Amino acid sequence: MQEKKESDDFRTRFHECDAKFNTIFDLTSVASKIIRSDLTILKVNKALCELLSYLPEEIEGTKILDHACEEYIAHWHRLQEELWSKKVPHFKLQACLYRKDRSIVWVDVTTILYNDQGETFGFTVLDDISGLKKHEESEKRLNVALKYSDTAVWELNLETNEVFRSPDHDQIFGYGQRQDYWTLESYYPHITEQDLPGFKAAIQHIEVEGGIDVQVRLLRADGILQWLNMKGKTETNEDGKTVKLIGVINDITKDKIAERHKDDFISIASHELKTPVTSLKASLQLLERSTEPHSGRNKLLVSQANKGINRISLIIDDLLNAGKNYREQLEFRKTTFNLYELAKEICDQFASSETQTVTLTGDKELIIHADSERIGRVLTNLISNAVKYAPGSAEIKVELQDEAAFVKVSVTDKGPGISKEKMPLLFDRYYQADNQQIQYSGLGLGLFICANIIRKHDGEIGVDSEPGKGSTFWFTLPKSILN
């Protein structure tokens, strides 16, 4: 009797344990399954059904290989060999499985062996790592993109000066292998003496400026000289304190070489143009001073030709000096003149066509004191750009405004407009805008030269634009220089 009672108690406890196991197995939030030595799926829980989008009866009785991605089938065979042939108590692998809709889910698989009534089964837990895999793939794509675009990512801890960086960062600085440690001071030996003070100053003003954008020449570890553009934006902590800088480092050596070649071409071409233009100018001056009788029309044409030659000579001088220090090299010949008359003379040069007209409004007695040739050149460039970049604009409006503290000149068109991200670049050296990806000829110096002329006059220049609604280019001259 005692033995029978103990046997009954054992069965009761066994069934209770089995029931508890099944309850835990079914209710756990971790995807789980029980497999046989031939990899047949005997039992699955609710979490695994949700992971693979199957009902229990649709997946129980199938083999795990039926759901495995083809390239990972060998991994499951290895699990089978390690656990049931080599008797390893547990085994881990990483694999991808197909859901019912054939989409892919990545899982970390852990399988533990256990014995039940003389047969060995595998209890398997599957941890969904699809999000991690997507992150790894995104990071891999980013690193490839950075590598082939000569770009590296850097993150500067402003408290410790430690730099966290992307895998190709050190290669940009000429190292064949990744360095163990990198700090802000690690950059100093590589930046040339001419550019190091500017880099340090930019770092010191990070909090005020909200970031950094500086170009430096670099002496790499392998002795190669190259140009880098180091830029980034600051980030703050919960207390609003600036704690780090995150940005990119671009290798701009090719751009600098192309810029130098362009400078050389402009310099040579300008010098070559200067001699024939000087000869032509002298011939026109002789013709103008000639005592032989000329008709009024001929005199007018000679006078206009002289003005045109003077403008061309000024353009050639500007091209010869269109370097980074262009503004400092500018020399003005200021006179007092009627701005409206100058603007009318320039507008008249753009003969109205059937589809496009140039109109002028404003104070006809607006007298200013400035370099008339160069102010005329700025206005000519702005109108010329409007004609070129907004061919569909029926009217181009030139407006002169006499404000309290300044005079404002604006040129408005109803063309395609300019996107917000491109507007800050328009006045950069060699930058050329485009109209719906259509490239126009030119050197990209027009607005750069215009900006320097106006700023040297202590004025401002800018643009207001919205894609699809046209653009207004404008400049101002302060009243303080007009008297």
From TrEMBL:
InterPro entries: HATPase_C_sf (IPR036890), HATPase_dom (IPR003594), His_kinase_dom (IPR005467), HisK_dim/P_dom (IPR003661), HisK_dim/P_sf (IPR036097), PAC (IPR001610), PAS (IPR000014), PAS-assoc_C (IPR000700). Residues 268-481 form the Histidine kinase domain. Residues 212-264 form the PAC domain. One of its GO terms (molecular function) is phosphorelay sensor kinase activity. NCBIfam families: sensory_box (TIGR00229). Its EC number is 2.7.13.3. The lineage of its organism: Bacteria, Pseudomonadati, Bacteroidota, Sphingobacteriia, Sphingobacteriales. It catalyses: ATP + protein L-histidine = ADP + protein N-phospho-L-histidine. This is histidine kinase. It holds the Pfam family HisKA. It comes from the Bacteria. It is an enzyme of class 2 (transferase). The keyword Transmembrane helix does not apply. Keywords: Kinase, Phosphoprotein, Transferase, Two-component regulatory system.
